[in-house]
Amino acid sequence: MIYVIEIPHQLPPKAWAVRDRAELIARVYAHADQAGSSTIYETTTVQELRDQHGDCEGCEECELIQQLADRYGSDTTLYRADYARAEGEYSDCEISEYDAVTAYLSSDLHSLKIFESDAEAREALANRSEWAIHQGTRAQEALRDLLS
Protein backbone atom coordinates (compact mmCIF):
# COMPACT_ATOMS: atom_id res chain seq x y z
CA MET A 1 0.00 0.00 0.00
CA ILE A 2 0.95 3.61 -0.55
CA TYR A 3 -0.22 6.13 2.05
CA VAL A 4 -0.76 9.74 1.09
CA ILE A 5 -1.09 12.54 3.63
CA GLU A 6 -2.31 15.85 2.22
CA ILE A 7 -1.67 18.79 4.54
CA PRO A 8 -3.52 21.89 3.32
CA HIS A 9 -2.74 25.42 4.42
CA GLN A 10 -5.87 25.74 6.57
CA LEU A 11 -8.18 22.72 6.31
CA PRO A 12 -7.48 19.55 8.31
CA PRO A 13 -5.03 17.00 6.87
CA LYS A 14 -6.46 14.18 4.79
CA ALA A 15 -5.02 10.66 4.63
CA TRP A 16 -5.79 8.10 1.95
CA ALA A 17 -4.27 4.95 0.54
CA VAL A 18 -3.90 3.21 -2.80
CA ARG A 19 -2.53 -0.21 -3.76
CA ASP A 20 0.33 1.01 -5.93
CA ARG A 21 1.75 3.86 -8.01
CA ALA A 22 -0.52 3.07 -10.96
CA GLU A 23 -3.62 3.49 -8.79
CA LEU A 24 -2.24 6.73 -7.33
CA ILE A 25 -1.63 8.10 -10.82
CA ALA A 26 -5.12 7.09 -11.98
CA ARG A 27 -6.76 8.66 -8.92
CA VAL A 28 -4.90 11.94 -9.40
CA TYR A 29 -5.83 12.09 -13.10
CA ALA A 30 -9.49 11.47 -12.24
CA HIS A 31 -9.39 14.40 -9.82
CA ALA A 32 -7.52 16.62 -12.27
CA ASP A 33 -10.06 15.92 -15.04
CA GLN A 34 -12.83 17.16 -12.75
CA ALA A 35 -10.81 20.23 -11.81
CA GLY A 36 -9.92 21.14 -15.41
CA SER A 37 -6.21 21.31 -14.61
CA SER A 38 -3.25 22.09 -16.83
CA THR A 39 -1.12 19.35 -18.31
CA ILE A 40 0.15 17.08 -15.54
CA TYR A 41 2.39 14.91 -17.72
CA GLU A 42 3.07 14.50 -21.40
CA THR A 43 5.69 12.90 -23.56
CA THR A 44 5.94 13.77 -27.22
CA THR A 45 8.35 14.62 -30.03
CA VAL A 46 8.59 17.67 -32.26
CA GLN A 47 7.26 15.57 -35.13
CA GLU A 48 4.21 14.55 -33.08
CA LEU A 49 3.60 18.20 -32.17
CA ARG A 50 3.78 19.14 -35.85
CA ASP A 51 1.40 16.32 -36.77
CA GLN A 52 -1.10 17.45 -34.12
CA HIS A 53 -0.90 21.15 -34.88
CA GLY A 54 -0.51 21.11 -38.62
CA ASP A 55 1.87 23.25 -40.60
CA CYS A 56 1.12 26.93 -40.90
CA GLU A 57 3.24 29.99 -41.28
CA GLY A 58 3.68 32.74 -38.76
CA CYS A 59 1.52 31.44 -35.95
CA GLU A 60 3.01 31.53 -32.47
CA GLU A 61 2.61 27.79 -31.85
CA CYS A 62 4.41 26.88 -35.10
CA GLU A 63 7.26 29.19 -34.11
CA LEU A 64 7.53 27.49 -30.73
CA ILE A 65 7.53 24.06 -32.38
CA GLN A 66 10.29 25.21 -34.74
CA GLN A 67 12.34 26.44 -31.76
CA LEU A 68 11.96 23.01 -30.18
CA ALA A 69 13.03 21.39 -33.47
CA ASP A 70 16.11 23.62 -33.67
CA ARG A 71 17.05 22.76 -30.10
CA TYR A 72 16.19 19.04 -29.88
CA GLY A 73 15.62 17.71 -33.39
CA SER A 74 12.43 16.06 -34.61
CA ASP A 75 12.58 12.67 -32.89
CA THR A 76 13.91 13.39 -29.40
CA THR A 77 11.46 12.48 -26.65
CA LEU A 78 10.28 15.65 -24.92
CA TYR A 79 8.69 15.83 -21.48
CA ARG A 80 6.16 18.31 -20.17
CA ALA A 81 5.05 18.50 -16.54
CA ASP A 82 3.33 21.82 -15.82
CA TYR A 83 3.33 21.40 -12.02
CA ALA A 84 6.94 20.24 -11.77
CA ARG A 85 8.35 22.72 -14.29
CA ALA A 86 7.26 25.94 -15.93
CA GLU A 87 3.80 25.66 -17.46
CA GLY A 88 3.93 24.68 -21.12
CA GLU A 89 7.68 23.97 -21.07
CA TYR A 90 8.99 21.01 -23.08
CA SER A 91 12.40 19.59 -22.24
CA ASP A 92 14.49 16.57 -23.03
CA CYS A 93 15.20 16.22 -19.28
CA GLU A 94 13.29 13.11 -18.31
CA ILE A 95 10.72 13.24 -15.53
CA SER A 96 8.67 10.27 -14.45
CA GLU A 97 4.91 10.33 -14.60
CA TYR A 98 4.86 9.55 -10.85
CA ASP A 99 7.02 12.61 -10.07
CA ALA A 100 4.83 14.81 -12.27
CA VAL A 101 1.67 13.52 -10.57
CA THR A 102 3.03 14.07 -7.07
CA ALA A 103 4.06 17.61 -8.07
CA TYR A 104 0.47 18.23 -9.18
CA LEU A 105 -0.88 16.70 -5.99
CA SER A 106 1.28 18.93 -3.79
CA SER A 107 0.76 22.10 -5.83
CA ASP A 108 -2.00 23.55 -3.65
CA LEU A 109 -0.97 22.08 -0.29
CA HIS A 110 1.22 23.23 2.54
CA SER A 111 2.91 19.83 2.39
CA LEU A 112 2.50 16.32 1.09
CA LYS A 113 3.78 13.12 2.63
CA ILE A 114 3.87 9.82 0.81
CA PHE A 115 4.80 6.54 2.45
CA GLU A 116 5.30 3.69 0.00
CA SER A 117 4.71 0.76 2.36
CA ASP A 118 3.02 -0.20 5.61
CA ALA A 119 6.42 -0.45 7.26
CA GLU A 120 7.47 3.01 6.08
CA ALA A 121 4.18 4.53 7.29
CA ARG A 122 4.41 2.83 10.71
CA GLU A 123 8.04 3.90 11.06
CA ALA A 124 7.04 7.49 10.30
CA LEU A 125 4.31 7.34 12.96
CA ALA A 126 6.95 6.46 15.55
CA ASN A 127 9.33 9.23 14.46
CA ARG A 128 8.35 12.44 16.28
CA SER A 129 10.56 14.62 14.06
CA GLU A 130 8.59 13.46 10.99
CA TRP A 131 5.61 15.43 12.31
CA ALA A 132 7.36 18.64 13.39
CA ILE A 133 5.58 20.50 10.61
CA HIS A 134 2.48 22.65 10.07
CA GLN A 135 -0.50 20.59 11.34
CA GLY A 136 1.89 17.73 12.05
CA THR A 137 -0.01 16.28 14.98
CA ARG A 138 -3.27 16.26 13.02
CA ALA A 139 -1.52 14.70 10.02
CA GLN A 140 -0.01 12.02 12.24
CA GLU A 141 -3.46 11.28 13.69
CA ALA A 142 -4.95 11.03 10.17
CA LEU A 143 -2.32 8.47 9.22
CA ARG A 144 -2.78 6.56 12.48
CA ASP A 145 -6.55 6.40 11.85
CA LEU A 146 -5.98 5.15 8.32
CA LEU A 147 -3.59 2.42 9.48
CA SER A 148 -5.89 1.16 12.24
Describe the structure.
With 148 residues, this protein is of the alpha+beta class. The chain folds into two domains: 2-37 and 96-147, no CATH class; 42-80, no CATH class. 45% of the residues lie in helices and 15% in strands. The protein is built from six helices and five strands; from the N terminus they run ββαβααβαβαα. It has helices at residues 21-35, 46-53, 60-72, 97-106, 118-126, 136-147, and strands at residues 2-7, 14-18, 42-44, 78-80, 111-115. It has a three-stranded antiparallel beta sheet with strand order 2-1-5. It has a two-stranded antiparallel ribbon with strand order 3-4. α1 crosses α4 (97-106), α2 (46-53) packs antiparallel against α3 and α5 crosses α6 (136-147). It is elongated. The two termini are 14 Å apart. The model has no long low-confidence stretch (mean pLDDT 93).
